[in-house]
Amino acid sequence: SGKALGLRMLGVIWRRVASRSVRVGGALLATGFGFHATTKCDALELVQNSLDQWEWRLKENDSPQRSEMPDQNEVAASLCEPVLATPVKVLDTPGITITEYFGNKASKDGTVSFAQATVHRADEAAWQTPRFAEYVIVESGTLELLTVHEDGAQVTRTQVAAGSGVYLPAGLRVKWTWPEPCSYTVVCLPAFSPLTSGSDPGVSDTVVDRSSNDALVQLHMSAGASGLSHLPPLVANQHAPGITPLLVEPVNVVEAPGITITEHFGNVASSDPAVSLGRAVVKGPSQEAWQAPGFDEFVICTEGSIDFLYANGRREKIGAGQGIFLPMKLRVKWIWPEATNYTVLCLPAFSPAICGREAEEDATNAKDSASMRKLEALHQKA
């Protein structure tokens, strides 16, 4: 099954954190981090064709005669479908609440975690050196990150205000502090695990007390995500003193009559082709043209609702507080029945060149031709 395939692949996937590619036949299907553990492509299997490349092939017992072999890009697209996400409160303490939509616990997949956090008071965490990279968007309040100064003795303070984003590379020794209540969205690559968070052992942590941390470990163990066989390798040694988090200012990449999309990380905002993370504001009932993107999409709806039309009239719907995963190559139409806000993560990063958007002019489409031309121009300059 797709789930079993995902579990078999996790160890291999983590050994290819820096550079991975998956192909359908000879065509590129995925780069960066995939989410194939939960897709429903049961007629396909991943076959390794080199040290760092895999390709989707029809399973031997499902393969027709060569003369009848269908196009495998079409097979992959037709057999994959959206996967609804069930959010899980992985932490809920007087200091902080973290709701995970995708990750080791929520979706039982270790390639990426995508969560929303609310800090309820001025607080701080212990020093840590995570084995995963972190992409953070601060929605309200202020986040302050402490790192070691280049002299090795002093501390450098990086302040992240509401509306800004910050990137923390794997292996960065850092202390999170919140001078006031704060809310933020965080993506970890690979997915967060207590066993790879790198928190200093035996150090008091006021935002997450010891009992809450123990419960978090048990939560991950119950999800089957914290066994030693599932641990990612050290993707980076601890960075030398003087390295600080990278502040990233958002860019409005789409400003159309029906929708505004703000990119916080990606090809335009941070020159990152591997990951894009953005927020969208849909101003009223509208829809998007049909598309079959060359990237996986992870969506969290924060206000309103979204319908996803696919596969000859089939439909999935999410509302505020719900999430959905859209596998790459899935032909899908987004429909917004009302004003809606959502956050979307694309792996690899969104690009007009691989968005698979079909030529479709409709008065109810959220994006007009002018906004699409601007989007393409921004990516050409990036």
Structural features, described:
InterPro entries: RmlC-like_jellyroll, RmlC_Cupin_sf. This is (S)-ureidoglycine aminohydrolase cupin domain-containing protein. The chain is mainly beta. The protein folds into 3 domains: 2-31 and 41-79, no CATH class; 85-246, Jelly Rolls (Sandwich), CATH 2.60.120; 250-381, Jelly Rolls, CATH 2.60.120. It has helices at residues 2-14, 72-79, 210-222, 369-381, and strands at 21-24, 27-31, 44-50, 53-58, 83-85, 88-92, 96-102, 113-119, 123-124, 133-140, 142-148, 155-161, 165-168, 174-178, 182-189, 246-248, 251-255, 259-265, 276-282, 286-287, 296-303, 305-310, 314-319, 322-326, 332-336, 340-347. The strands form 5 sheets. The protein has a 7-stranded antiparallel β-sheet with strand order 5-24-21-26-19-18-17. A hairpin with a 3-residue loop joins strand 6 (88-92) and strand 7 (96-102). The longest helix has 13 residues, at 2-14. The protein is globular and about 60 Å long. It starts with a helix and ends with a helix.
Task: Annotate the secondary structure layout.
Layout: H1 2-14, E1 21-24, E2 27-31, E3 44-50, E4 53-58, H2 72-79, E5 83-85, E6 88-92, E7 96-102, E8 113-119, E9 123-124, E10 133-140, E11 142-148, E12 155-161, E13 165-168, E14 174-178, E15 182-189, H3 210-222, E16 246-248, E17 251-255, E18 259-265, E19 276-282, E20 286-287, E21 296-303, E22 305-310, E23 314-319, E24 322-326, E25 332-336, E26 340-347, H4 369-381
Parallel strand pairs: 1-4
Antiparallel strand pairs: 1-2, 3-4, 5-24, 6-7, 7-8, 8-15, 9-14, 10-13, 10-15, 11-12, 11-14, 13-16, 17-18, 18-19, 19-26, 20-25, 21-24, 21-26, 22-23, 22-25
